[in-house]
Amino acid sequence: MNVIRKSRVTFRPVKPLIGAVVEADREALFDPEVVAQCRDMLEERTVLVMPQVHFTNEEQLAFTDLLGGRLNLTSEATTNKDEDVYQVTLDRKINRAPEYVLGTFFWHMDGMPMEMPPPLATLLSARRLAPKGGQTEFANSFAAYEQMPEAQRAEIEDLRIIHSVAASLRSIADAIPEAEKGKLAIGVEKERPLVQLHKNGRKSLIVGSTADRIVGMELAYGRAYIARLNEWATQPDFVYQHQWQAGDFVIWSNTGALHRVVPYARDSGRMMHRTSIAG
């Protein structure tokens, strides 16, 4: 794993197939040239970590705007005054739909069931940590595709998957009060390719907990196939687990990395601030 040094920033890989720590002076992180280098490195390493930079909302939004076009993804669900910042918390006083946060305990990509193109990238800053749990895990779905046997790549190349909100909440459906289910857009779904071609020529698997069924395949067979793909895509060599410290800032390619959080207590006080870049 080669350390990559630029004029004002160093990228230090954390695992052979995924992740890099960004080392730079805080002010350099708002230099458009450095941000462009981060964007290029994001395509290569999938996940970038900026340890303990302690961004404010304004700074996180400023960095988001430099990296790409800002996207408001479900931010209206929380009480935060910065409308493009989503507060990731299980506190119902702050988050009006914490069931979606419970859904993040399972491997997923953001925005897959929605009509709009899924976010290009997700940016997350740690404001308050849980005493136990709360680590975020990332699985490189570029590597998952590229390491797959050639015959299987050919087999899945043209398959299409229906992604749905219902699928993303299926594992926790029994825990959702009936009165809340009507607020969760259960019926929302979107058809997407299983293999996504990116502008840089690389391909990634688009799977995760939102993947409900394969178009044209009998339901049981399709769901079993999806389960096997999820298992393949999240094997240890493809996965990086981030141990959060307060003030950490992490960016990842939303359609190049599955992610999930290690479960934490509802009353833990854990709070993360998320921004998104349009796909």
Can you describe this structure?
The chain is an alpha+beta fold. The chain has one domain: Double-stranded beta-helix, CATH 3.60.130. It is 24% helix and 26% strand. The chain contains 8 helices and 17 strands. The strands form 4 sheets. Strands 1, 2, 3, 4, 5, 6, 7, 15 and 17 form a 9-stranded mixed sheet that branches. Strands 14-8-16 form a 3-stranded antiparallel sheet. The protein has a 3-stranded antiparallel sheet with strand order 10-9-13. A hairpin with a 5-residue loop joins strand 11 and strand 12. It is globular and about 55 Å long.
Summarize this structure briefly:
The protein has helices at 32-45, 57-67, 98-102, 141-146, 150-156, 165-169, 178-181, 219-233, and strands at 4-5, 10-13, 20-23, 47-50, 70-71, 86-88, 121-128, 136-140, 160-164, 189-193, 195-197, 203-205, 211-214, 239-242, 249-253, 257-261, 271-277. The protein has 279 residues and is of the alpha+beta class.
